[in-house]
Design brief:
It is a single chain. The chain has about 160 residues and is α/β, with parallel strands linked by helices. The chain has one domain: Glutaredoxin. About 30% of the residues lie in helices and about 20% in strands. It has four helices and seven strands. The protein has helices at about 40-60, 80-90, 110-115, 140-155, and strands at about 1-5, 15, 30-35, 65-70, 95-100, 120-125, 130-135. It has a seven-stranded mixed beta sheet, with helices on one face. Strand 3, helix 1 and strand 4 form a beta-alpha-beta unit. The longest helix has 17 residues, at about 40-60. It is globular, with a radius of gyration of 15 Å.
Length: about 160
């Protein structure tokens, strides 16, 4: 886990697989969870994805926004937009999902580089002021994730 207070960048110029674009700035006053994943990542499919789906169903959308970021750094041909849309439909992931972009021949996606993600799954928690507060790489215990989200939701916006 990493603690941080840097502003979270906008997810600009990305294709959204299952929703209109979501603005991080528009989420001020709410906590945002950004889930970076690959649909062929075993840890994402077996553990993190179902966990994030439960989080998106349990927490009120007035308190928490969940955003997925499909950030492909391997097997690019197998994980295109058509496959991703089928994956989201089959697993019934209803939270908005953006597709990370690439520059040139570099296999590491742009947002993944900008956020210094170590891989997938990664869970990023953004506070009510749009600042990155927690960054977790790998699978995370349900209780720990719920507690981290609850702490950020419980912070008084006026005092941040």
């Amino acid at each position: 886990m990493e603690k941080d207070l840097t502003p979270f960048p906008e997810l600009a110029h990305l294709v959204w697989a299952n929703s209109p674009p979501v603005s991080i700035a528009a989420q001020k006053g709410k906590v945002t969870l950004a889930y970076a994943f690959q649909m062929l990542c075993p840890g994402c499919v077996v553990n993190a994805g179902p966990q994030i789906k439960r989080v998106s169903e349990i927490f009120s959308r007035d308190l928490l926004t969940v955003i997925g970021l499909h950030t492909v750094f391997e097997h690019h041909d197998a994980m295109g937009l058509t496959s991703l849309k089928a994956f989201l439909h089959e697993f019934r992931y209803e939270f908005p999902v953006a597709v990370d972009s690439h520059s040139g021949e570099n296999p590491i996606p742009n947002t993944m580089k900008a956020l210094r993600l170590k891989g997938t799954p990664s869970i990023l928690l953004i506070d009510k002021l749009g600042r990155l507060r927690r960054h977790f790489f790998g699978n995370l215990d349900d209780l720990r994730l719920g507690a981290e989200i609850g702490l950020l939701i419980g912070e008084r916006y006026e005092e941040l």
